[in-house]
Design a protein that fits this description.
- The chain is mainly α.
- It is built from twelve helices and two strands; from the N terminus they run H-H-H-H-H-H-H-H-H-H-H-H-E-E.
- It has a two-stranded antiparallel ribbon with strand order 1-2.
- The radius of gyration is 20 Å and the shape is globular.
- This is Related to DUF887 domain protein.
- InterPro entries: TLC-dom, TLCD.
């Protein structure tokens, strides 16, 4: 399926092509404009849209937030837009991209479609924005979030080899739980801790997290493990063929061991962390509905963090 976004800017793609060729990021020149577009949109939300709108609609709440809480609030606003947008785009691509859906083993590993590349580019643009914010406000967000942003950006960028383009949309569905997490955080800041609205949202958060990260995540991880295992046993003759259009960036169809180790170990770690975080989320939600004396919650009591292969925002509560 062709990239539904506006056509790439030829001069921009040609400018970065030597750099991309050197790093074997063959499909990146076709999507650099989308990365920069996404970066610009999230920067505008964080810097120029979320603060005045929040102050206009919630003047008594937003104005009373601390400097650190305002930064986190603005970041959650950008995260909300990103998670909703990227999930819609991923679901749309999975449903509408017939070429992607019918990919064989070679095409799932080294193939490429414009629509899947767009989803990857929008995610890369967000994590580029995320990295810039983490560097600017390192004193607020800390080294952990800086490491998260860096690892996400590096891993998404490596996908432009292209590698695992098919799976970009698959694992992007992890983000389905992120809007509920952001809403949960906003409830705390709006003095709605322990309300029925937060309870219903908390239940939805746990259910969606369990379904999209633990169930769907385990199933999808098994599929990519199997594809990598099968690819490592392909002969040179087996690697020949495939749809010419989808394989136009495939190059020599190599699968370097460092890349295998990076992606596969990341999946194992991510799945283990998902189980750990799910337990922490249950405890955090229950904490807000105990009958004991009302507690105060810090900004970091419930927040988002990410990790993993094709890393996605993963909550730590």
């Amino acid at each position: 399926m062709q990239d539904p976004f506006f056509l790439p800017i030829s001069t921009l793609g040609e400018t970065i092509k030597p750099f991309c060729d050197y790093l074997s990021l063959r499909s990146l020149p076709s999507h650099i404009h989308e990365i920069l577009f996404a970066f610009g949109v999230y920067h505008l939300i964080f810097e120029y849209i979320a603060p005045p709108l929040s102050n206009f609609f919630l003047p008594h709440r937003y104005a009373k937030l601390t400097y650190e809480s305002k930064l986190r609030w603005n970041m959650h606003c950008a995260s909300m837009v990103q998670s909703c947008t990227i999930c819609v785009m991923a679901l749309w691509t999975i449903a509408m991209d017939d070429e992607r859906r019918n990919m064989n083993l070679n095409e799932r590993l080294w193939g490429y479609t414009g629509a899947a590349g767009l989803v990857q580019a929008l995610a890369t643009g967000y994590f580029l924005f995320d990295l810039v914010v983490m560097v600017r406000y390192l004193d607020v967000f800390g080294l952990g979030m800086l490491a998260h942003a860096s690892s996400c950006l590096i891993t998404y960028t490596l996908g432009f080899r292209p590698i695992f383009n098919y799976y970009g949309c698959v694992f992007m569905l992890y983000e389905l739980s992120t809007p509920f997490l952001n809403i949960h955080w906003f409830f705390d800041k709006l003095s709605m801790t322990g309300t029925k609205a937060q309870l219903y949202n908390g239940i939805a958060l746990l259910v969606v997290f369990f379904c999209c990260r633990l169930v769907w995540g385990a199933y999808s991880s098994f599929n990519i493990y199997k594809d990598v295992w099968d690819a490592l046993h392909l002969t040179a003759a087996d690697k020949v063929g495939g749809n010419d259009e989808m394989m136009r960036f495939a190059g020599d169809r190599s699968l370097p061991m460092w890349l295998v180790v990076l992606y596969m170990s990341g999946h194992v770690i991510l799945q283990a962390l998902n189980v750990f975080w799910f337990g922490k989320m249950i405890a955090a939600v229950k904490k807000r509905f105990t009958k004991t004396e009302k507690k105060k919650f810090s900004d970091s009591d419930i927040d988002y963090f990410g990790n993993g292969v094709l890393p996605l925002s993963v909550p730590v509560l």
